[in-house]
Write a structure and sequence with these properties.
A 5-stranded mixed β-barrel has the order 2-3-4-6-5. It has helices at about 1-20, 40-55, 95-100, 170-180, 185-190; strands at about 80, 110-120, 125-130, 135-140, 155-170, 195-209. The protein is an alpha+beta fold.
């Protein structure tokens, strides 16, 4: 009888141990992922970011992507008059003045230069004056009167292509140009002598829009 009781007690104890070893259904099962510390995750993310940065190729460095110039670098838009010309290889106003200073009466040179428009004929736009250093001006007319420029082109940037030369302008012509340029009668009456002018006969003109 004692043996039977001892055997029954042993069976009950074994069953109880098995039940205690099973996890409760409401308790989460701990995994290795749950045991990773937050700083370790941060280190992994930082390492991956560094790898991505090291392998990143900027579009500016990749020849497959055309580079776009900034607003400051972009060439201004021009309206074209007369023969079609480009803005490439145009001399500066300072370089153009040096060309003029080297000319003698009767000399003519083919050239293209860029400068600011000082004034324009206010009747037709049939001539304009362009600024140069030392308060000098280039007096620009247009070949065979085939084209004119806008009357409001004052202070615009212009590029002219054609022939530069020295010209002697008579008193009558000077007064005519002064009147066309909107000068007062008092200023016109002050013109007493002919003037040697830095002249330019343009066959093509670009004016900034």
């Amino acid at each position: 009888m004692k043996k039977v009781l001892l055997l029954s007690a042993a069976v009950l104890a074994l069953a109880s141990c098995k039940q205690e070893s099973k996890p409760a259904p409401d308790q989460p099962v701990e995994t290795t992922t749950d045991t990773i510390k937050k700083d370790t995750v941060a280190q992994i993310g930082s390492h991956e970011s560094k790898l991505l940065a090291a392998n990143y190729v900027s579009k500016n460095d990749d020849p497959r992507f055309p580079q776009v110039l900034s607003t400051e670098q972009q060439e201004p838009k021009y309206a074209s008059f007369g023969k079609k010309i480009t803005s490439e290889k145009a001399l500066s106003d300072a370089a153009m003045l040096k060309k003029y200073e080297g000319l003698k009466t009767g000399d003519t040179i083919a050239v293209k230069f860029k400068s600011k428009v000082n004034s324009v004929c206010k009747k037709k736009g049939c001539w304009m004056k362009m600024d140069m250093p030392k308060d000098k001006k280039a007096f620009v007319k247009f070949k065979d009167y085939e084209f004119f420029v806008p009357l409001n082109a004052d202070n615009s940037t212009a590029i002219v292509s054609g022939k530069a030369y020295l010209d002697v302008i008579s008193v009558a012509e000077l007064k005519h140009y002064a009147k066309d340029g909107g000068k007062s009668q008092a200023d016109i009456d002050k013109i007493k002598e002919p003037q040697i002018t830095y002249a330019f006969m343009a066959d093509g003109v670009l004016i900034s829009e």
